[in-house]
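Reopening this one. Same input as before:
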Amino acid sequence: MSAQPTRLGDLARSEWRADRMALRSVKQELRENLLARISGDAPLFPGIHGYDDTVVPQIVNAILSRHNFILLGLRGQAKSRILRALTRLLDPVIPVIAGCEINDNPYQPICRRCRELIAERGDDTPIAWLPRERRYVEKLATPDVTIADMIGDVDPIKAARGGRDLADELTIHYGLLPRANRGIFAINELPDLAGKIQVGLFNIMQEGDVQIKGYPLRLPLDVLLVFTANPDDYTARGKIVTPLKDRIGSEIRTHYPATVEEAMAITSQEAWLHRDGGRRAEVPPYLCEVIEEIAFHARSDKRVDRRSGVSQRLPITCLENVLSSAEQRATRNREPVAVARVADLYAAIPSLTGKIELEYEGEQRGAENIAVELIRAAIAKVYGKHFNSTAVQPTMQKVVQHFELGGELKLAESATAAESLSQLRKIDGLLTHVDRLDVSPKSDAAALAAAAEFILEGLCAQKRINRSEERGFFAERKRPPESPEAAGRPPRRQFN
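Same output, byte for byte:
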């Protein structure tokens, strides 16, 4: 591979010739590279799950149409990740005029400094190369963002050092949007941007001109603008000014995972599971299902604010916390393997309560109580999936009868796997169907104890047995009907 040109004259004689670069905008560049990826069956957005048939096709259409676009969705729906992944569709590097603050095209410079440099040095104008990672600029919109942050402002120090008038274009300190020239400019939470800043955005988007401190400046920027927003902010509060909304080519709605399998793929990808504590630490797949079901139940619970949403970060942080709880227990007991149990789900409640916004009814109930109820509902759902077949019921009835006849079992949270399993084996039939949880009856004590505890918790969630902090697992014994004499009541009169 030949060395990249470092002078304008060499650049003009290379593959980066003037006719190609002068006609190819960043939106055209994205379009061409996207078409090449589609025709080559290359993945468009690696690491983005659940959007292949919904969101991704709409993004593809927007890029092929050379549209600025906005992603509308609740928190935790990978909006920012999608925008950052757009850089994959840019060229690996592009030539710019060396030292230019706004990445000027060597053949079409828009800033005065670069125009004067080319006029002075001609083919000897120095060229630098900008990698795709530096062509993405992102800004979180907040009410305190100013037009100077976005567009630019007069720099009096620059004016003083150069002996220039403040109205001189060379005294301007460029903002984020001009610095994203020939790249992608992303604004997160667009409705939070003040209205006057939004006006400045659409003016420079469409007309390419802006005023800085009353000084009119022409900046025909080459940039793809992408935005994110919460649908409630966008439609109900109406905080995006109409002219800006009109200039956004495509509006694309994101969503939470549609299936537990998609959600588990996202969570396992994002969660920190490969620990460095010197021991094997794992969360059984059935508990991973429970963690995802917690999020699904929360999203449909009337006590949880649906407008706020339940982020996919909830199962991610919950999974990490569950594994940490198992890791802590194994470390204290000096066990070589840490396998998460149901008790670790309840230990992870602090990772749940901060992720859900409650309605009035939920506030009255309390976040921790709501979290406990969500965990039990999720366990009941996953238990039913694995154990509700008629073939399992006789064995499960044996387990229930053990408690109905007076049996009780309290498992200490700090107990070793061997100690817990020794207690669990005393319940007839409890370990018979652990294979339904993809656990072999010959597995180690940690895996068997975790599976057996899950079965008991599932029976409790289905209200077939009870559990309390004081007694552990138990069942209310059925009392025979009292005779009237034993109850101290006169016998009922019989009428012929």
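So the earlier flakiness isn't reproducible anymore. For the record, The domain at 8-253 is CATH 3.40.50.300 (Rossmann fold).
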